[in-house]
Automatic annotation (TrEMBL):
Record-linked Pfam families: MS_channel_1st (PF21088), MS_channel_1st_1 (PF05552), MS_channel_2nd (PF00924)
Protein name: Mechanosensitive ion channel family protein
Keywords for this protein: Cell membrane, Membrane, Transmembrane, Transmembrane helix
Domain Mechanosensitive ion channel transmembrane helices 2/3, chain residue ranges per copy: 61-101
Principal location listed in the UniProt entry: membrane
Transmembrane segments: 15-36, 57-80, 86-116
Domain Mechanosensitive ion channel MscS: 103-167
Database matches in InterPro entries: LSM_dom_sf, MS_channel_1st, MSC_TM_helix, MscS_archaea/bacteria_type, MscS_beta-dom_sf, MscS_channel_2nd, MscS_channel_C_sf, MscS_channel_TM-2
Alphabetized Gene3D superfamilies for the sequence: 1.10.287.1260, 2.30.30.60
Subcellular location as annotated: Cell membrane
Organism taxonomic ancestry: Bacteria, Pseudomonadati, Bacteroidota, Cytophagia, Cytophagales
Protein topology in the membrane: Multi-pass membrane protein
Residue stretches in coiled coil: none
PANTHER family recorded: SMALL-CONDUCTANCE MECHANOSENSITIVE CHANNEL
Length: 271
């Protein structure tokens, strides 16, 4: 009986010691969990101005971090030693970070791209020697699609740290058609009919105005560039139409190609 009484007294002492802690920890857990949910909803509402993918990711990240911190705090209130637990988490995080440093660099690059928006979905960009239309911006990669139907996956880390050429940011694209013409071509007459031909196309923008410019001189001829701007994404179809129209117009106007020039030298050797 004395042993049972001793156990009962020890149990009573433990209940007296830990019951208030458990009750306080339970209240803290419930209230903290509710507050985290409330804070997550506020963050989600505030993040609606950001990209949808970024807003969802940031909301989930904040929610998970706050819940982990809450559980550690509750464990400490009950009486568990949390110092070693936090140290283990820190060491594990460091090891995972070192193992996934490339992935983390891509993650950081994705966040920077989503925040600063050097390009958005639908833009045509060139980066790391690859070009295409942006179909999707993921946390770790950017997905491009080329006119040939190829899918290109660019790591966000390398993309955000390299030169990015956004070909559609200004909402216009240059169409340049180059032709080698005879040196005898009258440039004033050429511009008189070629510029209205370019302006008449349905996709050519009025400003900047179309141009006809000589870009190079060659033996017997010259290189002429016919230039016009179109809305972004419509330069391909406009270029195909204008090439056919210019080819027919050059033939009708009698503008020929360069005539090859050959020089012959005769040298008489002494007998």
């Amino acid at each position: 009986m004395n042993q049972v009484s001793t156990y009962a007294q020890q149990l009573q002492a433990l209940v007296v010691l830990y019951l208030p802690r458990v009750l306080m920890a339970g209240v803290a857990l419930v209230v903290g969990w509710w507050l985290i949910g409330w804070a997550s909803r506020i963050i989600a509402a505030a993040a609606t101005r950001l990209d949808v993918s970024l807003a969802s990711f940031l909301t989930s990240l904040v929610n998970i971090v706050l819940k982990v911190l809450l559980l550690i705090s509750v464990a400490g209130m009950v009486g568990f030693e949390t110092t070693s637990f936090v140290a283990i988490l820190g060491a594990a995080g460091l090891a995972v970070g070192l193992a996934l440093q490339g992935t983390l660099a891509n993650f950081a690059g994705g966040v920077l791209i989503l925040i600063f928006k050097p390009y958005v979905v639908g833009d045509t960009i060139e980066s790391q020697g690859k070009s295409g239309e942006v179909k999707e911006i993921q946390i770790f990669n950017t997905i491009l699609v080329t006119p040939q139907g190829d899918t290109i996956i660019l790591p966000n880390g390398a993309t955000s740290n390299n030169v990015i050429i956004n070909k559609t940011a200004q909402n216009k694209a240059l169409v340049e058609i180059v032709a080698d013409l005879d040196n005898a071509t009258d440039l004033a007459a050429l511009r008189a009919w070629a510029i209205p031909l370019l302006q008449a196309d349905e996709d050519v923008l009025p400003a900047p105005a179309p141009q006809v410019a000589v870009t190079a001189l060659k033996p017997g001829g010259m290189t002429v560039a016919f230039r016009a701007y179109t809305p972004a994404g419509r330069n391909g179809s406009a270029q195909a139409r204008l090439i056919e129209q210019l080819q027919r117009a050059l033939a009708q106007q009698g503008v020929g190609s360069p005539v090859p020039v050959q020089h012959s030298y005769v040298r008489t050797l002494p007998e």
